[in-house]
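User: Sequence recovery, please. Input:
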């Protein structure tokens, strides 16, 4: 039994205010608050599958920061290295809900506590012993877009991971509200070259690898592998996922059928959490992809980014022959 966390992740956890009426934001009158943030979603997903996880980040000394810390703690995520900032607020995002077309997301995060993440936060995690038994580091392309210090924090995390022999996964997570494609591409390409496992949608891979999103998924995955990682994972949404490994094997899995998509946001993070958790357990690519796809389906069937993340029992049921009924 490992003494400390197996997985370390870092980034900005924020509060998402999700409109409760369908339609344009201008007409929304009530909002529900959820803890969100891609890396925190992954942390909770892996924790629900019973692997010890630590999240490194910063929140403001305000009610939203307390809500985030309580949520993460309640999920069993180690937040001992999360700093509480006196002079910067916890970030927010506001999301509208539309039955048709993409839902707009507004960020209120510039100058936020989370964006002040810096290499010191990783050094604190190291001092607290959080890296002692760690096996896996998960980072995303959101963090380097937040600020120069947050980008440096990612660099520090990578250095520590290399020194400690951790497996590194990178979710490209291109956020076009944070930076332009031409700013993001070289930085994400560089991170791709230093990660072991890289995850992305066809659109994200196209930007990073300089290809078209309409290229065959297998060609997109191959272009990621050319940049250096040993595994490329494509998140194909309603079409499931694909895993390609250096050396040639490529496998695909269709999505589990979900009759009612309640909220698709967070499905990609659930997929990532499923993959990491399965690989921590020694699963082969085939099984890890099956777990990832099942976690993605579970996440879209619940509102908020974290609510639908399955427990071990729920995951086992979803993967069983009659599991599909549970999400219809
Ligand atoms: O993957 C879901 C995330 O996009 C959401 O939780 C918010 O982290 C977030 C971001 O920066 O967009």
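Assistant: Recovered sequence (328 residues):
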């Amino acid at each position: 039994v490992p003494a400390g966390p197996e997985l370390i992740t870092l980034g900005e956890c924020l509060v998402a205010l999700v409109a409760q009426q369908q339609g344009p934001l201008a007409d929304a009158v009530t909002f529900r608050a959820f803890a969100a943030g891609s890396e925190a979603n992954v942390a909770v997903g892996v924790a629900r599958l019973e692997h010890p996880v630590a999240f490194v980040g910063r929140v403001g000394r305000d009610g939203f920061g307390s809500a985030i810390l309580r949520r993460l703690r309640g999920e069993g995520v180690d937040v001992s290295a999360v700093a509480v900032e006196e002079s910067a607020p916890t970030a927010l995002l506001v999301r509208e809900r539309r039955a048709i077309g993409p839902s707009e997301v507004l960020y209120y995060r510039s100058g936020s506590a989370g964006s002040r993440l810096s290499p010191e936060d990783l050094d604190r995690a190291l001092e607290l012993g959080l890296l002692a038994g760690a096996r896996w580091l998960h980072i995303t392309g959101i963090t380097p877009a937040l600020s120069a210090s947050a980008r440096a924090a990612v660099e520090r995390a990578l250095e520590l991971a290399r020194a400690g022999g951790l497996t590194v996964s990178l979710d490209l997570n291109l956020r076009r509200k944070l930076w332009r494609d031409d700013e993001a591409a070289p930085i994400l390409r560089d991170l791709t070259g230093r990660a072991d496992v890289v995850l992305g949608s066809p659109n994200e891979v196209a930007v990073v690898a300089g290809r078209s999103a309409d290229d065959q998924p297998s060609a997109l995955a191959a272009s990621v592998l050319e940049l250096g990682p040993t595994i490329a994972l494509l998140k194909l949404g309603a079409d499931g996922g694909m895993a390609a490994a250096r050396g040639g094997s490529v496998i695909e899995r269709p999505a589990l059928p979900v009759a009612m998509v309640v909220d698709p946001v967070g499905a990609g993070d659930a997929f990532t959490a499923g993959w990491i958790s399965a690989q921590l357990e020694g699963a082969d690519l085939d099984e890890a992809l099956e777990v990832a796809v099942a976690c993605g389906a579970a996440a879209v069937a619940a509102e908020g980014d974290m609510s639908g993340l399955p427990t071990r029992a729920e995951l086992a049921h979803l993967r069983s022959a009659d599991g599909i009924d549970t999400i219809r």
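The first strand starts at residue 7 and ends at 10.
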